[in-house]
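Render NHP10 in 3D.
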Amino acid sequence: MSEALEAQLDILQNENAFLKKYFALRQKCEQIQQANEKVVNRIQHVKKMIKRYKRERRYLANRLDDYGDNYRDVQVPVMWEEDKLLGATEPCSSFEDVEKEISSPMSSTDRTVSEILSNINPLLKAHGIDHITPGSKAKKSKADTNAPKKPANAFLLFCTQQRSSVQEEYYKDKHEEISNHEMTKRLAQKWNGLTPEQKKVYYDMYEHEKERYDKEVKEYHERESKSQGNVTQEVQSMMGKEAQSAVDALMMDT
């Protein structure tokens, strides 16, 4: 009797191990499937970008042909010529210069970076950008809560629309609330069951949301630049008032 029970326990343990492996593999497959959907969405976006860039390239080529520009015969400079233009490569003139370079505490990479930055810093300063040093690190800017939010992709838009219907269907069948894992699984199944024409509706919605986002970003930057201009004017007016008050005080003292 005990041998039979042990045999049944061994069978149950083996089945349990196989079930765990099955569910683990199933979950992995679902994750891969969702990743593939994101890649497909990205491919669609990249294809549209390529079409737009080709159209812009043809337009620019036609305009240059109209102006008679010989851009097709222009030679592209090689990398060492570009470095020479930036002042990055300066050969040593004598053996003493080589000794100075070897004894210098600054590494060759740091020296090259310093030379390049010394050449471009005047240009940056002319555009209102702060002076950059080799050791300076870019500061992370805090996220602006007033900035427009990026639109969701096509699959997430589909999930947003179908979530309530999936919840209702599951509650009618099981008489309980649906879990997040089951919700994701059912939404992925419904998405995979759509035809390309049905999916195109959500891809078009995504493109529409993306255009809206680009428009809101442009308006947001315009508002920010306008508000910064107003602050600058207020500061200048305050400085003018302080200067005038200082002049009046000097006149009274005299």
